[in-house]
Amino acid sequence: MLAATSTSWCAVGARDIEGNLSCAVGFGSAAWDRLFGAPRPADLHSFRELRTGARTAPSTPGDLLFHIRAERVALCYELAAQIMARLDDSVTVVDETHGFRYFDDHDLTGFVDGTEKPTGAEKIAATIVGEEDAAFAGGSYVMVQKYLHDHLAWHSLPTETQEGIIGRTKLDDIELDDDHKPAFAHNALTTLIENGAEVKILRHNMRFGRVTSGDSGTYFIGYARSLHPLETMLQSMVMGRPPGNYDRLLDDTVAVTGTNFFVPPVQFLAALAPDEPSQPLRLPAGWRGLGGAPTSDS
């Protein structure tokens, strides 16, 4: 069963204790109802599609998410292989994306990605469900989107134009001051202030790509203690804040997937089948899984 994921994680991770192997297991809204029923995480729901003009954030199916991370790709591969061996033919993999570290945490636009992500206690406060939903305290919500970049169009833009779109300098990763930052800058539209305080999320974005096919870009993986900040930021990017003042990054990048998940705490998975024998997991026919995604981001 899915509870054995932690056993596989321990076994594979023990091969290299400095490899920092981790695996987050997420469940989509429909999958939660089919597997567990009530009670359910208070904010779990399907991805809400956004469309306006040429910009879109599509909603795509996904029942299970395995977000696998490590310092070595070999660890990611081995854990993913063991998970898929247990799932056997019970799931259909709808996406398997392998990410990589790119030049000191830059993404394929040439800018540093995730500069201001929270750390320490701030990270826990931003990502971990608390007493507001006590039955699922310790869990986290995840939104994933796969973005494909038009690299020729992006790299044809002057550096100054790119910096205005991102809201940071390209060479030294310094945030533009408010006098020079456009209102449509990516980091302006994805900053969320509520009740006088900034609401943070944790981005574990991945760079991915194949040079021969042009299929490359950024795999957005955002963790938060509710879907609200993730959805509000995306709304600002696509629809604009105010409407029409949209994220110009979307002129040269397009989302091709969009799915929401809830990642319960490890104890929840362990309690599903504490004395489970080693055997393939059988799930109902038609299940859709998003494959594990090796990355070395911390």
Written overview of the protein:
With 298 residues, the protein is of the alpha+beta class. It has one domain. It is built from nine helices and 14 strands. The strands form four sheets. Strands 6, 9, 10, 11, 12 and 13 form a six-stranded antiparallel beta sheet that branches. A four-stranded mixed beta sheet has the order 1-4-14-5. Strand 2 and strand 3 form a beta hairpin. The protein is globular and about 55 Å long.
Give a concise summary.
With 298 residues, the protein is an alpha+beta fold. The protein is built from nine helices and 14 strands.
Coarse morphology: globular
**H/E topology pattern:** HEHEEEHEHEHHHEEEEEHEEHE
Number of helices: 9
**How large, in whole angstroms, is the Cα Rg?**
19 Å
How many runs of DSSP E, i.e. beta strands?
Answer: 14
Strand content: 15-25%
For the termini, the CA-CA separation is 28 Å
Structural class by SSE content: alpha+beta
What does the largest sheet look like? 6 strands, antiparallel
Helix content: 10-25%
State the domain count. Answer: 1
What low-confidence regions span 5 or more consecutive residues with pLDDT below 50? 276-285, 292-298
Q: Roughly what is the average pLDDT, rounded to an integer?
A: 89
Features:
six-stranded antiparallel beta sheet; 298 residues; single chain; alpha+beta; four-stranded mixed beta sheet
Furnish the topology, listing elements before pairings.
Blueprint: H1 5-13, E1 22-27, H2 29-35, E2 50-52, E3 55-57, E4 64-69, H3 73-87, E5 91-95, H4 120-127, E6 140-149, H5 151-155, H6 159-166, H7 186-189, E7 192-194, E8 197-199, E9 202-203, E10 206-209, E11 216-224, H8 228-238, E12 253-255, E13 259-263, H9 266-270, E14 287-290
Parallel strand pairs: 4-14, 5-14
Antiparallel strand pairs: 1-4, 2-3, 6-11, 6-12, 6-13, 7-8, 9-11, 10-11
